[in-house]
Each structure stands twice: as C-alpha cells, then as structure tokens.
Amino acid sequence: MFDKVLIANRGEIALRIQRACKELGIATVAVHSTADADAMHVRLADESVCIGPPPASESYLNIPRLLAACEITGADAIHPGYGFLSENARFAEILEEHQITFIGPTSEHIRIMGDKIEAKETAKRLGIPVVPGSDGAVTNEAQAMKIAKQLGFPVLVKAASGGGGRGMKLARTAEELDMAVKTARSEAKAAFGDDSVYLEKYLTKPRHIEVQVFGDGKGEAIHLGERDCSLQRRHQKIWEEAPSPALNSETRAKIGTTVQRAMQKLKYRGAGTVEFLYEDGEFYFIEMNTRLQVEHPVTEMITGLDLVIEQIRIASGAPLTLKQEEVTFQGHAIECRINAENPKNFRPSPGKITYWHPPGGLGVRVDSGAYQGYRIPPNYDSLIGKLIVHGKNRNECLMRLKRCLSEFVIDGIETTTPLFTELVRHPDIANGMYDIHWLEKFLQQP
Ligand code: ADP
What we know:
Dna Ligase, domain 1, eight-stranded antiparallel beta sheet, alpha+beta
C-alpha cells in the first residue's frame, strides 16, 4: 500500500479522496492555488503545497509543479480526481516515467478512450453496441452530407476530443449541416486544439445510462450496475440515480455483462464508466470515462462499496474486492449537484457562504468542501457540493430527498437547490418518465 498520496484536485472531490486515504491509514498531501488557501481539503490534509496562482493552467493543470510537490513531500502516488488532469494520458505517462503511481488506468487506455473516434472503434471491436454514425472523422463537406443522408436527419456533429458537452452541434436538416460542422470544428479547435469531428445519428428521446466498471488490469473485471443521468442541462448532468427507473434486472444484467466482458478483453485497470444512450430498448455506446465520476456516490450507496478505496487498492496492485456474483444492489439512491449558480439563469454566484446548514438523518450524505464563512472563488467549476440520499426504494428516496431539500440552508450565495425542490415534486420525475431532453424543455416553460 502507498505511504503518502498527493491529491491533484480541489473542492468536494479532493476531500472525498482524502477521506478514503485516511480510512486506509495513508498520509495525504493537498495541493492548492492561492485562491484555495482556505479550502477544506487544504485544512484537513496532513500536508499541503501551494502550487500557483488561481488560473488552473498555472496550478491544478501544471504538471511540473505537481511533480515538484510530489518530490518535496515524498508522495508515492497521485489521485487525479475528476476533471483537470484525470484523463490526460501524457500526465499518466510522465508519472509512470517518474515511478509515481497514477491512481487510474494505463496511459494507453486513457489515450484510446480520450479520442472519441478511437473509443467508438474500440467499443465496437469489444462487442459493445454503438450509436450509428460516420466510420471515423469526416474530412470534407460532401462526405459529411453523404453520411448524414444515409443516417437520416437530425444528425449530431461531435468533436473527437470533445468533453463537457463542448464541440457538439445539432443539424436538424441538410441546410444546417455545413454550419454545424464549421461551428463544431472551430469550437473544438479552440477548446481542445483538435478540430476533427465525426457524425452520429441524433437520438430524439434517449435516456443517458452509464455502467460503472472496475478492472484489475490483468483481465478480471466487474460491473457495479448502472446510473441514470438523463436529467441534463446543456449536456451536463445535474441529477443522477441508481438504479435506472427504466431498466429491469434482466436488461441491467445483460448490458452489465456486455461491458464486463469488454473490460476483461481490454485488461482495463481501475474505475471506469461506459456511457450509453438508451432508446426503445436498445443501448448505444457514446463514450468511456477512464476516471472516477462526479456521480459515483449513488453507486456506493446501493452497493456498499467505497469506490475510491477500491481505486487506491487496485492501483497498489491488490485484486478486486468483490467477484461479480458478490455484487448486490440495495434500495435506490439519488444525487443532486448543488452549484453556486442562479437557479433560473444559471449565472455563477461565487462569494461568501454566510450560513451553511446541511441536512442529516438516515440515508443522507452531503459531499462538499463548503462551510460557513467559506468564500467560493470565481475561478473554477461552480459545483460546491452534492446531496445524496438513499432509500429502500425509489419512492422512499424521493420523499427523503424532498425532506432534505427543505432542511438545506445555504445563505450568502445563490445555489441550484430551489430547482431540485421543483423537480422532486414534478409528476414526470416521480414517475421516472424523463429522457435527456426533458430538463431543457422544463426550463423553457414560463
Ligand atoms: P461529452 O464528452 O461532451 O460529455 P458525450 O458524448 O458524453 O459528450 O455526450 C454528452 C451528452 O450529449 C449525452 O449524455 C447526451 O445527452 C447528448 N448526446 C450525445 N450523443 C448524442 C446523440 N447521438 N443523440 C442525442 N444526444 C446525444
């Protein structure tokens, strides 16, 4: 096992990882920018190193500074969390070269899955069903038009290096295609420095269903069931649940086994998430995330497994804790992402939290680095915490969530909690009747 782990992240996830390390008896090193000197992950770490000014490029994304922090503190492993360098194959490779363990998959697997075109090809090869689309990148307008007509409009233009919903453009008709390709290309170039794009059939009423997997890197792999993340705004998840209200145990076992076998063939190591769109009883692979996900707690709540501890154990060379037949699912869990944003127009609302009172009680978990008096810096993602509730079944879970939202008090800044109060009362949500477009339509209503 490791003696000391450096956590190359901030906010709630840095704290989450730190908690896992502490329970394993591993010393922790927090890194932070000058904007985060007062952050909870810094306060609670065994050691901390300031790695630069507020811009992420000069701190959390700065590889030489992270290496220096490792050197100074003698950390023998790095956990990258999510975002920042978590899916940077070069970073994983550099750590491999420096004999520092990257708590994650091999740099090779990160690279394959980081290119969405290559990821799709790989998925197909491993027997995973994919969304119909272009075979590889589209290189010119005539070719794009030909493929789009074969697929049938509407089609989605997607960036090969895309992430966070960027570089994705919809073409409803043939007239819109040229423009969609051009905008997707320029957005992708600006955001990722790579303008290759590909086409996919646009699904009109799918759910987003993703399967959590763990591999030991030697050919053994298990799946931990699915999460339904269909409630999205601008292709960004805001509410996630497990199990999905749309699947029965047979469908769950079938897709789970497909993914498990694929990961065994790939000899995948560590935690990963295979994302699908699910429409009319069919699954279509869209991408694989080779890291811990924001929404991992809902899986922890229904399986009882600590996914971060599992990641650390696997990275240290230990075998998987559970065999597939030992994985069991209990009850239902929902996570709401609490963002420091106006709940109507979603404008960021950084600033000082003057009062903070999180809910509690049976089946309630709040993952957050926020506290009373904490000043949220304007430089980063607006996620300030996650409210996770667990219940015997979906109905109990919804009742508990409603109760928790009424208890949660956050003063001084605006947050998205009022939106969840509305959602939890909505009959479509109560009935589990929503697809990936539901929230956008709901938000457009006066
Ligand atoms: P990113 O990596 O940018 O998050 P994804 O490929 O994971 O991109 O897609 C993000 C979201 O975009 C999906 O959850 C879904 O809501 C939507 N989406 C992606 N592909 C399609 C498609 N072919 N049809 C309809 N919606 C899609």
